[in-house]
Amino acid sequence: MNFWPGFYSLQGAWYLLLxxxxxxxxxxxxxxxxxxxxxxxxxSQVINDRRVNSPFQKFKRSILxxxxxxxxxxxxxxxxxxxxxxxxxxxxxxxxxxxxSASMGAKDPATKQTRLDLAKERVTELIENLLPDQRVSLVAxxxxxxxxxxxxxxxxxxxxxLAGLTVxxxxxxxxDALRMTQALSRTAPIKTVLFYSDGNFPKxxxxxxxxxxxxxxxxxxxxxxxxxxxxxRKNQTGNWDIFIRIENSGNSDTPATVELLQDGQSVAxxxxxxxxxxxxxLEFSINSDNASSLEAVLxxxxxxxxxxxxRAFLKIPRxxxxxxxxxxxxxxxxxxxxxNKELELxxxxxxxxxxxxxxxxxxxxxxxFEKQALVKLGVGFVPEDLKKYINxxxxxxxxxxxxxxxxxxxxxxxxxxxITEQPVWAENASVENLEELGYEVVVHxxxxxxxxxxxxxxxxxxxxxxxxxxxxxxxxxxxxxxVSNLIxxxxxxxxxxxxxxxxTPVLPxxxxxxxxxxxIKTPTGKELSTESNKYGLVSGIAALHIGKYVISGxxxxxxxxxxxxxxxxxxxxxxxxxxxFSEVPVTAAQTQIDSDKPLWSEFALIAFVLLLAEWWYFQRxxxxxxx
Length: 627
Hints:
The chain crosses the membrane at residues 12-28, 63-84. Keywords: Membrane, Transmembrane, Transmembrane helix. Residues 93-269 form the VWFA domain. InterPro entries: Aerotolerance_reg_N (IPR024163), VWF_A (IPR002035), vWFA_dom_sf (IPR036465). This is VWFA domain-containing protein. By secondary structure, the chain is α+β, with helices and mostly antiparallel strands. The longest helix has 20 residues, at 600-619. It has 4 domains: 93-221 and 574-595, 3-Layer(aba) Sandwich (Rossmann fold), CATH 3.40.50; 225-318, Sandwich (Immunoglobulin-like); 322-494, Rossmann fold; 506-563. It contains 11 helices and 36 strands. The strands form 9 sheets. Strands 16-15-17-18-25-24-23-20-21 form a 9-stranded mixed beta sheet. A 5-stranded mixed beta sheet has the order 5-4-3-6-7. A 5-stranded mixed beta sheet has the order 27-33-32-29-30, with no helix packed on it.
């Protein structure tokens, strides 16, 4: 800090010339009215007045003149706009990025102040110390970047935008904010960017800095205990297994109570003690044939800096049977599923008409894929859009490799499977051609793919390019396991076997009528409008806050979706000291940023005090005059 002041408007010093007329007026001869008095005691005062009013006489001390000179000096100093120099280079255009992610809502155990409140205090101080040639633009950083103000020196506008800033229950995307700032640099010369954050974001950022980044890391908040996962899975007995994961970001062992409520009634409670940085998975079991609402409540016994991750909500769907269509020509699949009581198999004997929609379709003909279903398995044919890339030859082949992480092939061994139909790549065709059309190769043969997977907007499709009945696959142990995986996968797609609590920052997709408009009311009262796609899916809706989202429109009778989980990174409250960019790292500043301190308001206040003193001195009652 340089305590020798600088002056922004030196031309204001010209007003010091007003001292000349002030002093000249002081020496002007006083014109007194003529009065007859019965005493000569005033003659000595008249002589003194004449002596003082002469410009060549000795200067007579006057408190009133001194006050007037000081008043003028401080007014001129105020016009010169002095300031205390910080010693740092002053940026004329300064973007200030403010982290608004969920972790910024964490509180300090002593002051109970959130990290965002602390950031607001520091930015407010910078705004109040702006000099006339400085402009500031405020940018909020959460799941996306939002520019709150243009470059301006209007303190009222800046403070109003800063006051309206709130925490979003989402992770922060620093890269988006830096790209927005880079776009701002095309309209204004930006040398330095300020970034206020608690450091809770990924350490590596894929961005090349065209400016200097001043990373102001805020002091860490207190310890936090939170729910990071809440899901349910239906077991073989028909009951639901409930799984809750708790994590501790504190530096000491923390006891807490976890309670599970079903439709508002407590059904389970457990005491836990989590060590430093530990996580624990709790498991409960409930019985529910009908739709029900679950709530997990975490109650820490010590101070908890972040309360938004202490409750989680989950909806259990109503139990129902899967509707499965199996081509009559594929007897091996029908035989494998005949004893499953959770399925309704179609077509039944002697019937040709089934339900309009299915959960699963297994067919040897592509025409059956025109029916609506969540999961479809094609057996023994090549999809129409792939026939120019893949040919089928009647030759013996086997499996070369397969994707062992695929849910469809979990615990399935395909070694030594003999196949009498061999898919072969057409000339100049490759996997890239299939990927361009949205297909993924799950099983590879010697000369071409054997099993493909494709995710569409409304369904999941699998294609065996050979007829599995013309192979040794149905006679192996892995075949019923594979069919069981397919049923489990279909139940997951239907949401009746495994469900999990919704998390920010995007609402889970819901299905209504195709190409209809819907309104979504957020927990903060904001109204959003969207339109379903041609499959009836409503997706991609931002969920920036924890709470209930109400969907209304045709086919949606004020449906509610409860969003209750934060990103686990936000619950952990981790803080990085260094940001690694493409070329250079940026380390958090060790001290708070020091800005120039304007002094004109202080000088103006002193001038006002001197004006009051002059008024009092001039208006005071002369001595000897009775009241």
